[in-house]
Design a protein that fits this description.
This protein is 65% helix and 6% strand. The protein is mainly α. The chain has a domain at 1-66. The mean pLDDT is 76.
């Protein structure tokens, strides 16, 4: 048995055990946090690797085609303009025209902004034949 007043009394040992238990709890929390951080880093590395592969593939595609000459660049620009004109023609057939860089949509019937031909309030003049058909 230890003498009274000895630093190894049961009361002192209980305090030491409490401190060790707290340290173990703290270390367990730190290990858990490290595990979560490790998983997050692994996930981000995978995402970054996929992104780099996509970017590299795009560069390889461009490089495989070689350098553009001025004539090739102009022909590509003209092709894009033609595609843009076709899409604007398609939208015009639907009754809405997009005019100018301002991006305002205009009605095909009255030319005003804010609506299309389907919702236009102005009455279209009909021929007499149409009126005769409707009355019969």
């Amino acid at each position: 048995m230890s003498p009274v007043g000895s630093p190894y009394t049961a009361y002192n040992l209980i305090g030491v055990f409490a401190v060790v238990k707290q340290l173990a709890k703290g270390i367990e929390f730190i290990v858990y946090q490290i595990t979560l951080l490790y998983e997050e880093v692994r996930t981000l590395r995978k995402a970054n690797e996929a992104f780099v592969k996509r970017r590299r593939a795009k560069k390889i595609r461009v490089q495989a085609e070689g350098a553009l000459s001025i004539e090739d660049a102009y022909s590509l620009i003209e092709q894009k303009k033609a595609v843009r004109q076709q899409s604007s023609r398609r939208s015009a057939e639907g009754g809405v025209v997009r005019v100018g860089p301002s991006g305002l949509w205009r009605c095909r019937r009255c030319g005003k902004t804010g609506h299309n031909i389907r919702t236009c309030q102005e009455v279209e003049e009909t021929s007499e034949e149409d009126n005769d058909i409707e009355s019969n």
